[in-house]
Amino acid sequence: METNKPDQYHHFLLVVHPPQSHIIPVRHLAHRLLSIIPSCHVTVSTTIAAHNRMFPSLSFPDQEITMRQVSYIPFTDGYDAGFDRSIHDPAERMKKMEIVSPKSLSAIIDHLAECGRHVTCIIQTLFLPWVVDVAVAYGVPSILYWIQPALSLSIYYHYFNGYDSIISSHKEDQEFTVSLPGLFPLNIGDLPSFLTITSDDNTLREISTSVTVNKRHL
Questions:
Q1: What is the pTM of this model?
Q2: So which residues are the catalytic ones?
Q3: Distance (Å, rounded) from C-alpha 165 to C-alpha 99?
Q4: Which of 100, 170, 175, 186 could bond to 190 as cystine, CB 3.0-4.6 Å?
């Protein structure tokens, strides 16, 4: 994508999964970027439902908000009224997001370009692998913003690269020791719980589904 902007121009688009635990680190990152590059532009985009929780007095659901040099423009995930675990299927949510959200984010990028605010870098949090495809389509570099401890990243990486079977086969034995490359020995009970889920009714099923979808990053 041609920007026709000078070399010092930067516009960061931060795409964030809707939970508050993702949004807060991204908002801190936005202001950190502005402190490092005062002339840059920063746009934060999360789902419409989360956007409305952040700004409850909007004139319309996808209204753009600008606060302290940071703009907020939401994308749709197909659940604009909010996701409810009691009536919605977590697996279906991720599938729907993969279909509708790339089009919505692309529309945001096009809108920003029309306003002269060309995106030069896209940064996304966990569970949004489709953002990478959008970035590639626009020729914009993308970065995964890791908001969890480095230990978690290492555990996820090894789980999806050869250690899933040993963890799964001993998931009932909380004292079983797993030796992952570069890490101190860990008991099964020390691992993230959604890696050893035994029931489809477990409230962490959504997290497990999300990590599986997102393993392209790991």
A1: 0.83
A2: 22
A3: 30
A4: 186
